[in-house]
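Board notes (copied after class):
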Amino acid sequence: MNSRDCDFLLVSCTTLSSKKATYVYNNNKYDIQFTLPFSGAAAYLGSYVTQRGYTFDFINSFDEEKDMLKEKLKGNVKLVGITTKFVPELQKNALQLQQIVSFIRACNSKCEIVIGGLSFASLIQYETDSMRSLFMRIVGADYYINSFYGEESIVQLLNYKSGIGEISEVNNLFYKVKSNYLFTKQIVDYSNLEDNYIDWTVFKDRLGLQIPIRTAISCPFNCEYCSFPMYGGPYQVMSIRNIERELRTLAAVNPTALLQFIDDSFNVPLNRFKDILRMLIRNKFSFRWISYFRCIDTDDETIELMRQSGCIGVMLGIESGSQTVLHNMNKKVDHEKAKELIRKFRNAGILTYVFLLVGFPGETKQTIEETISFMNESCPTTYYMQMWNCQIGTPIDNKREQYKITGAEYNWKHYTMDSSTAQECIRYMRSKIQNTTDYLGDYAIFEFWYHFLRIGGKLDALKQIDIKLQ
């Protein structure tokens, strides 16, 4: 990755940014530098490309690494890829991507540009042909990959640009002919975890603190508000042998990393989860880690194994304090068990970050009060609350008539609430939820907790900590 010439340069389009903050603990002032998480797309797509004989480089964040991108584009770059972030509105995506494409063209007019990724594929899934074409013309890239994974399509495109095969043989590809975009053969190309082993030593010069680790693809559950199982394809898990192999390569170059296990349901099934925890302990890794955690029956042994293996925090998709709303969501959460789980995590010194989804069909003023009561009784460390996004393609979208749903995205109405009322409810809930704090608004709370632990900070002390962003 040190040469200025490369076959494939990946540019990550992210909403996250590095930032500085200060806080006071035991009368001492501390400075903290929040870092950008390492790009998961760079890790997985980069590994796939290099394992097939092509050179690879990447930009972790377009917004924060423009100077680095400009320098890399001075070389002979065969193909530039842009990963997309999820922004529901097609127009906002188009304008943002257009800026990145224009920047790349200004730096290097000869390289060709391809756009893809799960967010892009899901965004155009239900658009008309005319809207797709308009989007592509506005953005101005040379190629677009319509696949929720797309690793093999990238390799096929690189083969074509190397003189192997025809452009029509690249699957799932929109390519430009004069002013129009033609589409090649659509195939299902779900990624195979076992075939895409990551050797983290390849990225040793660019790894920061936060590293994404994927041990499973898709999700075994079918919540009504979520489209991920449909986009992600069949649920599959990586063998523990390969997880161990990957982590050993990471430990060789970044032994104190903060791992983000990005699986939707890392602790499912429970026996496999315990085996992963025992593997972490057996290797005596110095990692600390966080993960999403499904609120299922969890025994004391599991909590203790999590603590011993370096877990510092979990993200809990509680979504609502109302069993009525949870029933409509097809969300398998038992509130009494969830309260007990949060208590056990607190006793183990593990931070709990609760997600709340406001406004789903069935939501009323009464269910809002139930959620407030749940939060005040369970006392998670912190929480994040957002309005329900009425996404086309989710299971609930097929029940519009049943729930009298009109509108889409963040402008909707159904039989018990509308989006304007949901916004008001969020403001009201923030004023009523006590004994927990809406920290920082994103996952930076975990990086803060990582640093806080290193100076001897305790979980109970977080409520007295005032973090001031600079």
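Comment from the instructor: The first strand starts at residue 6 and ends at 12. Residues 90-107 form the longest helix (18 residues).
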